């Protein structure tokens, strides 16, 4: 394997588990298919065993990692999934089933995962998230562009309408779920109208967080071979600022909505600013800061949030979870 299956967080509370490697998609801007090879999923039993082991060592949160977790499929024999027969596919473990197996390790072990792919994210995954309190209600769903023509040039395998349908499914099945995205500004051939579609999508979805990039050509990618990187830098940069401005506003609205509510928080360690304050995250992945009192790292606490900054909730513990 080209990835170490388990990576431990330095906080002793959160850890990462790789559940697959490689990627079978061919997004035209991306080098991963060339550097990491074809997609292969790991044996679910070994993933569950690692999660159990981590929990026994005191870890309270695992993040299942893959380039496209929704495409996870373990058939027992390590075959590429397009080679499987329908019968083999039915007998295989898919991502929703893997999530359930890991969620059952302990209700005290939180589960996160990344990255979801809009083309492959099923309602079954969302329903499994809804079924288990310990699967965090947070989905990172990279859209990349709000315009279907650009999405096609990016070879993403979905349209704007398809993507918005997946967002509707998240909001329907998991009301209040945190949602974040990645956006690439100024991809080859992007016009002002295409860019306006990305702005309108941002306004419509109201993401909690956004990871916003300006397009820059990577050697060996399909885009390098097929398209011209033809959006001038100053235009990319202006479009990027417009995107950042909307996302900032959205993040502030989302963070503010958490004020006045009680959040279940897993304590990860001291806050950045003070050793008298602890920080942790709520289920939606928003950072929550509060006085440390006698609590300790790895505890779950209920925090009543009284105020916030642009991206951090601040409050105090109302009752310790048993
Ligand atoms: S962007 Fe993600 S899904 Fe697309 S090819 Fe790269 S790793 Fe695969």
How would you characterize the overall build of this protein?
The longest helix is centred in the C-terminal third of the chain and has 24 residues, at 233-256. The model has no long low-confidence stretch (mean pLDDT 93). The strands form 5 sheets. This protein has a 5-stranded mixed barrel. The chain is globular. The protein has helices at residues 32-35, 44-56, 86-91, 95-103, 123-131, 148-153, 160-173, 192-205, 222-226, 233-256, and strands at residues 6-8, 14-18, 20-21, 40-41, 61-65, 73-74, 93-94, 110-114, 138-140, 178-185, 209-214, 262-270, 277-281, 287-291, 300-308, 312-320. The chain has 322 residues and is an alpha/beta fold. Helix 4 runs parallel beside helix 5, helix 5 packs parallel to helix 7 (160-173) and helix 8 runs parallel beside helix 10. It has 3 domains: 1-136, Transcription Regulator spoIIAA (2-Layer Sandwich); 138-257, Transcription Regulator spoIIAA; 262-320, OB fold (Dihydrolipoamide Acetyltransferase, E2P). The two termini are 39 Å apart. It contains 10 helices and 16 strands. A hairpin with a 5-residue loop joins strand 1 and strand 2. The structure holds iron/sulfur cluster.
